[in-house]
Write a structure and sequence with these properties.
Helices cover 25% and strands 31% of the residues. It is built from 9 helices and 19 strands. The chain is globular.
Length: 330
């Protein structure tokens, strides 16, 4: 049954921080004291395994495949780290599909059902998906499931209408992923015109903090919205609208991307391209020992070895901008 929330941070109906949130933050998870690696026992005391998902493109925008662990350089707060974990599309994903059902995207609900079935089935069998829809309120329509085909069925009969509370939807999805899938990699796929008209009582900074803390990469499937110019003008003048989240910026900060259906040619093509991008990410991990107990946010930078040239000129890496340490690790 659908679960409805006003997405108010003061609500007592939905826990904001769970025990799982204290264990896993932004891809950083507490490890047991002894870790077995390559036949030798390595002792890690008071450390975190920080996992970073990264997509690498050449200067022409093409995905760079076949890279190895030795090709990457990872820095935390400016200090280079030893990469202990390296994989490619191996860890299970927990994907929150967050669908805008406000009045502005009504023409896209029907084609979205077909595109959803095709695209989500391209995920790995062990990947799970949960479904949220939102307009003024946020509804959790289906808990995490490996049955990707069931997601499209939940979109049947949904009617569009109301405002666009992207802020609340992002926080609800991030919180649910941490609570229900603490040991998996988190992805949020937002289907919207990316024009928030209702901040839902949550500031843009709080949305960014909560999504980064969840470790979720935000991917946006952007569809054209039916937003009259007069309405957009009124929205910009409203003081409260300064708290609306910038979806493109949030995607960049979390290591995700925006896929514009108009540029891709169709919703179906854009959705399949988005899923393919999720599956072509590298996962890098290192053991971090907190050295500054007062610093909760740690800045991350991922580069390739000097032989590949300069980042931003010869290649581009899409990865999260940082992570929050957990209270338990401080």
């Amino acid at each position: 049954m659908a679960r409805t929330s006003t997405s108010n941070l003061n609500s007592k109906r939905r826990p904001i921080l769970t025990a799982a949130l204290l264990v896993v933050f932004a891809g950083a998870s507490l490890l047991p004291a002894a870790v077995q690696r390559q036949g030798e026992e390595t002792i890690h005391v008071g450390v975190q395994l920080v996992l970073i998902e990264a997509t690498v493109k050449d200067k022409a925008g093409q995905i760079m495949d076949g890279l190895e662990k030795k090709d990457f350089i990872v820095k935390e707060d400016g200090a280079e780290q030893k990469v202990d974990h390296f994989s490619r599309d191996e860890l299970p994903l927990a994907v929150a599909l967050v669908v805008d059902t406000s009045g502005s995207i009504k023409p896209y609900l029907e084609p979205l059902r077909a595109a959803t079935t095709t695209a989500l089935r391209a995920l790995k069998p062990d990947d799970s998906v949960t479904l949220f829809t939102f307009s003024s309120l946020v509804e959790h329509r289906l808990p995490l499931t490996k049955d990707k085909g069931s997601i499209a069925g939940q979109l049947e009969g949904i009617e569009a209408g109301g405002a666009t509370n992207i802020n609340g939807a992002m926080v609800e999805a991030a919180t649910d992923l941490v609570r229900e899938a603490p040991g998996e990699q988190h992805v949020i796929v937002l289907v919207s015109d990316n024009v928030p008209t209702d901040p839902g009582g949550i500031s843009a900074n709080e949305v960014t903090r909560r999504v980064l803390a969840s470790g979720a990469a935000v991917y946006s499937l952007k569809v054209p919205g039916d937003n009259p110019e007069e309405m957009l003008g009124m929205i910009k003048k409203m003081k409260v609208m300064k708290e609306r989240i910038n979806v493109a910026k949030l995607a960049e900060q979390t290591g995700g991307e925006v896929f514009d259906t108009q540029k891709e040619g169709s919703l179906d093509v854009a959705f399949r391209a988005l899923i393919q991008r999720i599956k072509t990410r590298y996962t890098l991990g290192y053991y971090a020992t907190p050295t500054n107990k007062d610093r909760l946010f740690h800045k991350l930078d991922v580069q390739l070895a000097a032989t590949f040239g300069k980042k931003g000129q010869n290649y581009l890496i899409v990865s999260r901008s940082g992570y929050y340490t957990t209270p338990a690790a401080r």
